[in-house]
Amino acid sequence: MAAENGAGEPPAPRRRDGDRAGLLSRAEVAADQIAALAARAEPGSRLGTKEELRGRCGVSVGTFNESLRLLQARGLVTVRPGPGGGLFAAEQTPMVRLGHSMLALDSQVSDVAEAARIRDALDPLLVEDALWHASPADIAELRARLADMRTAVRAEDPDAFIRANWKLHAAIAEVSPNSLLRSLYVTLLDLIEAHTLSVLPDGEMPLMPYMAERYKLHAELVDALDARDRDEALRLVRLHNTTG
User: Fold this and answer.
1) For residue range 84-116, what is the model confidence (pLDDT) as tens digits?
2) End-to-end CA distance of the chain
3) How far apart, in whole angstroms, are the C-alpha atoms of residue 160 and residue 168?
4) Which of 18, 31, 117, 138 is a Cys-bridge partner for 70, taking CB atoms 3.0 to 4.6 Å apart?
5) Is pTM beyond 0.90 here?
6) Contacts 24+ apart (CB under 8 A), 147-156
């Protein structure tokens, strides 16, 4: 029998993501168990009551509530109250790949994928403009947006991170004197953000290390803009491309 901790729950198992071993929280383990049930069920079919599923997972009420939050954020289950209620398999949320993460969308997956692709194509133009036109005040604004990204990394909040990332890119776009380019780019960002429900790992790389890596890349990009280092800035933009 597995040893139990003070909360009366067995220790969470370890999982490998490629060559990386990470400790799964009990909430994630329970969420994975219920996600597997939902994957085998017809959309809309009943998986069980909260208490039935909590007992099946062998976790506390608080842990199960966290699992439920994860499942709902991923669009895998819906919850219905009252007699005959419980957890039900949800219609699958459309996804679009964004580097080593996935955007869970409410709809229009093809539109969002194309918007991300066009956005990436415009990034070098905006960086060229920022190299020429960014003032000290502009650079200070970019560093403020970087600080928001760093805060999200420390909080391990991928949704806050991606939105802070988009705000940084919008701030870079605002530096451009080209009003058409600015407007098109910000419209693409707005379209992507409007249809994004949450940010999820893609199964190839853990999300937290990926966020830290992306933060470092953006910090180096802002440093290159501040130093007017064109070669380095354009090199970083090529690395930045998320949809290639």
Assistant:
1) 888 988 776 676 777 777 777 766 777 888 888
2) 48
3) 12
4) 31
5) no
6) 149/215, 149/218, 150/215, 152/211, 153/208, 153/211, 153/212, 153/215, 156/208, 156/211
